[in-house]
Automatic annotation (TrEMBL):
Residues 8-81 form the Myb/SANT-like DNA-binding domain. Involved in transvection phenomena (= synapsis-dependent gene expression), where the synaptic pairing of chromosomes carrying genes with which zeste interacts influences the expression of these genes. Zeste binds to DNA and stimulates transcription from a nearby promoter. This is Regulatory protein zeste. PANTHER family: APONTIC, REGULATORY PROTEIN ZESTE. Keywords: Transcription, Transcription regulation. The keyword Lyase does not apply. Self-associates forming complexes of several hundred monomers.
Length: 164
């Protein structure tokens, strides 16, 4: 039963995590690709093998491809949590400094992941009409009518409320 257990390795140091993030930047277009077809998976596997070879060529502790993949997944999870806590702390009431300690490695990981980590922010509904201008124009004598101009992506629309 003890034979099936995975042998525990030394914890990753700050420098090793930093080196992994820098190497991931080199292979990010392949490894972070969302496709999962056979060709893409084979390219991802080859990229992980190359990353592992480069990682082990400059370090003192040899790491397996599986351990690098495992720590990368953990760092991605931690980066998502870090960004969520940072956003929550930033949007909280009371002002003052953020209660979330800045982590350089997690910042780099979230930058690498892009929108997968930060989510979609400040997206406007593209189908919604935007009010660009409001003006009052004299219509038939002394009566005036307020004209609101709406602008859509392809055309300009006019909205005329009831005469005042």
């Amino acid at each position: 039963m003890a034979e099936n257990k995975r042998k525990r390795c030394q914890n990753f140091t700050f420098d090793e995590k930093d080196k992994l993030v820098k190497l991931m930047n080199t292979f990010k277009n392949v490894i972070l690709n969302k496709k999962t077809d056979g060709t893409t998976n084979q390219a991802k596997n080859e990229a992980w093998v190359n990353l592992c070879t480069r990682f082990n060529s400059t370090g003192t502790t040899a790491r397996s491809k599986e351990s690098l993949m495992r720590v990368w997944e953990k760092m991605k999870t931690d980066a998502k949590l870090y960004k969520a806590l940072s956003k929550s702390s930033h949007n909280g009431t009371g002002g003052g400094p953020s209660c979330v300690k800045t982590d350089i490695i997690l910042e780099q990981v979230s930058d690498l992941m892009g929108r997968a980590c930060t989510g979609i922010t400040d997206v406007q509904d593209s189908d919604a009409d935007q009010i660009t201008e409001a003006s009052s124009l004299p219509i038939l004598g002394d009566e005036t009518m307020e004209i609101l101009i709406f602008q859509n992506e392809n055309e300009m629309l006019l909205f005329l409320p009831v005469v005042q």
